[in-house]
Design goal:
By secondary structure, this protein is mainly alpha-helical. Among the domains are: 126 residues, no CATH class; 79 residues. The protein is 76% helix and 0% strand. It is built from 30 helices and no strands. Helix 12 runs antiparallel to helix 14.
């Protein structure tokens, strides 16, 4: 009985902390402090959010990374220490700016405690890899001046290093944590409201109604549903778990192999984080790094994301034709798209408000999302959605749920700020940039391949936001210094950071899908790589041809669509009939030619492409003629 009472107490305590975290974000996004003439520094607010997030981590996640509600005594102590240390920063921050240069003992002690707490909390929520990176950079900060060569760091006083990392806006209380605390939590709230009000079922039913009757309809349902829900959820694994539980059994029943079903779902769910209007937390950070509006990031990312899903559709269709996979039976799908739209008419409204707020009213992302979330909740409670009316108590339950979901991203972005601070204070970022620029003197392509490989390796088992921040700090400056387009460079590292989700040996989105499909994880990972081939190619395309980033170069975009078609044919090995190695090689050659035209202003790429396409057509015609000739013989 005592154990149950303790469990209830800690569960309620965690709920209260999560509720306060989410509500404080809502109040800040709504400019409530300004309405009451309260002068609160942004860093004070960030320290307050960090205090709550650290306390929640130690209250809910155990040392062995299990999520349980009964914490041992040392986790309770760490929880209280988190509230006290970060809370102390909240209280004294207005006077901290004058005192921090003197490095008083109390400030150094608080900063040291915060560093230790953040490292352990990062290990618990994001795994050992990111925690090791953080520790290595902190150790480098202490001893980097002893490193020989170009990687030698600046000598920094120990006390100054600790305080600047923990308490300075260029460290933990910097841009990444600001984006997570002020923007991302609001979008997580929208995702939770959408899910709780029946939005997941709506997207799945709408996808089934539109795509279910076509060949390979189960795979196309998965692609559409994962794209729609994934662009809001902002998490590939969460998307797999939410939509995959419905779409993977459908694909298996239709005739796709378990590994193929899992691979399709993993690739589609991962692509949701690349698809506007939300694109996960990394897109908001990208806007800050590039010093452009979030709307500009969305516009630039739109065409590559559409090409990504076009490639998935083509492959699903060709694979279904090759393996004779039919559409979904009528009993497994909603009969009419109009019926689904009529029943769930409330769900497009928040998206219209979000997009209208971002692009026409020029609202900040958090305000546009705040209005969208409010409209959804009001409509869901008054009118009702796919699962009926949302009760007020259920709407209130969304707030702590969103607060708990924000833990990972808040802790990871705090660690990301720490990484940025360590790189800047020690000067390591400059040394790495010089080394990478030296590599590019021999070949720009070599630099891009190194950046892609580093992105995938760092991303294995590490959250996308952490990978993006690391690469944006370590690799992106070198690529920009040699003259590459800034937006293209940041999208390049974002794409390859995302591809770690489906790239073995640690493909967490593919492995999650494999569990639902009851398939071999590694086979599912390789299938996901095959289906997601375009994501490994398109980043090189928009680096060498930034015209496809909505820069008005429609020729590049049209050629890229042709390249997607022929590339997909080459991967699947089917176009009207099964293709041999030579024809597949010709199709791959056409795709490369379309993706990387030598000169868009000349007829050379057109002639090359037309000749290659004519070659493929000739091979297919000869093969079909031979088959007819043989079948006509007695």
């Amino acid at each position: 009985m005592k154990k149950i009472e303790n469990s209830t107490f800690f569960d309620r305590s965690a709920g209260v902390l999560a509720t306060i975290l989410c509500l404080s974000t809502l109040l800040w996004a709504g400019d409530v402090p300004l309405m009451f003439d309260l002068l609160i520094y942004t860093e004070q607010f960030l320290a307050f959010v960090l205090a709550l997030a650290l306390a929640l981590v130690f209250l809910c996640i155990r040392f062995d990374r299990r999520q349980t509600i009964l914490p041992p005594w040392y986790d309770i102590c760490a929880c209280m220490l988190s509230l006290v240390s970060a809370g102390y920063v909240v209280i004294v921050y207005p006077t901290l700016a004058d005192e921090i240069a003197l490095l008083p003992t109390n400030i150094v002690i608080v900063a040291s405690i915060l560093l230790v707490l953040i490292i352990e909390s990062v290990r618990r929520v994001a795994g050992t890899a990111l925690a090791v990176v953080v520790v290595v950079l902190i150790v480098y900060g202490f001893f980097g001046h002893l490193v020989p060569g170009q990687l030698a760091g600046l000598k920094v006083r120990d006390a100054r290093l600790v305080t600047q990392l923990a308490l300075d806006p260029s460290g933990i209380l910097g841009t990444p944590l600001k984006i997570a605390s002020i923007v991302v939590v609001i979008f997580l709230l929208l995702g939770k409201a959408l899910s709780r009000s029946g939005g997941t079922e709506y997207f799945t039913n709408l996808s089934a109604a539109i795509m279910g009757r076509f060949r390979g309809g189960a795979a196309k349902i998965s692609i559409v549903a994962s794209a729609l829900f994934g662009s809001i959820s902002g998490s590939a694994v969460s998307n797999v778990a939410t939509t995959g539980i419905v779409t993977i059994p459908l694909m298996r029943k239709a005739g796709f192999s378990p590994a193929a079903a899992g691979g399709i779902e993993a690739v589609a769910s991962t692509g949701g984080q690349l698809l506007p209007p939300v694109m996960g937390a990394a897109a908001f950070l990208m806007a800050e790094f590039l010093e452009i509006t979030y709307a500009e990031v969305v516009i630039a990312a739109l065409v590559p994301a559409i090409l990504y899903f076009i490639a998935l559709f083509i492959q699903a269709d060709l694979r279904a034709a090759r393996d004779n996979v039919l559409g979904v039976s009528s009993k497994d799908r909603i009969s009419s798209a109009w019926t689904v739209l009529r029943k769930g008419w409330i769900y497009p409204i928040p998206f219209a408000i979000l997009i209208g707020g971002l692009f026409w009213l020029n609202l900040s992302p958090q305000k546009a999302c705040l209005y969208a979330t409010a409209s959804l909740l009001v409509l869901a409670m008054i009118v009702g959605g796919e699962t009926g009316r949302l009760h007020f108590k259920e709407a209130l339950a969304i707030i702590p749920d969103a607060g708990r979901s924000a833990l990972d991203i808040i802790i990871i972005t705090a660690a990301a700020g720490l990484v940025i601070g360590a790189l800047n204070i020690t000067g390591l970022s400059f040394g790495l940039t010089q080394i990478l620029v030296g590599l590019s003197e021999h070949s720009v392509l070599a630099l891009l391949f190194v950046a892609a490989l580093v992105s995938i390796i760092l991303g294995m088992g590490m959250p996308t936001v952490g990978v993006y921040v690391l690469l944006a700090t370590l690799v992106a400056p070198a690529m920009i210094n040699i003259g590459l387009d800034k937006t293209a460079v940041h999208l390049f590292i974002l794409y390859f950071g995302m591809m770690s989700m489906i790239t073995p040996p640690i493909a967490i989105a593919a492995f999650a899908a494999a569990g639902l499909a009851k398939a071999d994880p590694m086979k599912t990972g390789w299938e996901a790589m095959r289906f997601g081939w375009l994501a490994y190619v398109i980043p090189f395309v928009f680096v060498f041809s930034p015209g496809i980033l909505m820069r008005g170069d429609w020729v590049s975009i049209c050629l890229a669509v042709v390249g997607v078609w022929f590339g997909s044919v080459a991967v699947v090995g089917y176009m009207f009939q099964s293709l041999g190695p030579l024809t597949r090689l010709l199709c791959a050659t056409i795709a490369v030619g379309m993706f990387f035209p030598s000169d868009l202003n000349s007829l050379v790429p057109f002639i090359k492409g037309t000749s290659a396409i004519a070659g493929v057509a000739l091979v297919l015609w000869l093969r079909m003629h031979r088959i007819r000739h043989l079948s006509a013989k007695p």
